[in-house]
Specification:
With 170 residues, the chain is α+β, with helices and mostly antiparallel strands. The chain has helices spanning 2-6, 85-91, 95-114, 119-122, 127-142, 161-169, and strands spanning 8-11, 15-21, 24-26, 36-39, 45-51, 55-58, 62-64, 72-82, 147-158. It is built from 6 helices and 9 strands.
């Protein structure tokens, strides 16, 4: 009974899984994406589960210098999903290890895109187009991790505190 129960694994509709034998991926290398009941060799095979849902990531406040040299403090968040569990496992192993790398990718994309325009464009209606450019830049960098950047939003764009005081005094 124990052997029979330990030879079955269940993939929930919110998960995807990889079958591992001694740490190496075996079987379906694309992973088990469809929910259902699957079989494994007891005590030899292990199952690594990964989220199949859209996951959030928030960046810490980031200072960006646009083309007109006005420093801005930017707060952003993104939504991402694991699209290739095999390359995700090979590059970062799990979601907790992926978050710092995705935050670095997102911060680099924000600095790259917002550093190439003037601050008036960031604060105007062009902001939507800039968020799309940030998403595409982050998406191309994140595909090596087996991740898709679904959406990037700039939550807050402000002057730094010292510049804000000088602006009010002026």
């Amino acid at each position: 009974l124990f052997i029979m129960i330990s030879s079955i694994f269940i993939v929930d509709e919110r998960q995807q899984a990889l079958k591992l034998r001694f740490g190496q991926v075996i079987g379906n290398v694309e992973g088990y994406r469809d929910p259902g009941l699957y079989f494994k060799l007891p005590l030899i095979d292990n199952i690594a589960y990964y989220e199949d849902r859209i996951l959030p990531i928030e960046t810490s406040s980031l200072e960006v210098t646009p083309l007109d040299d006005r420093r801005l403090v930017v707060d952003a968040f993104a939504r991402w999903r694991i699209i290739d569990p095999l390359s995700f496992r090979q590059s970062v192993q799990n979601e907790d290890a992926a978050l710092p790398r995705l935050e670095r990718i997102l911060n680099a994309s924000i600095r790259e895109v917002l550093g190439s325009v003037v601050s008036d464009a960031i604060l105007s209606d062009d902001r939507v187009e800039l968020m799309l450019r940030i998403r595409e830049s982050a998406r191309s960098a994140a595909t090596t991790l087996g991740v898709d950047m679904i959406d990037v939003r700039l939550r807050r764009v402000d002057l730094p505190q010292q510049n804000l005081q000088a602006t009010f005094q002026r």
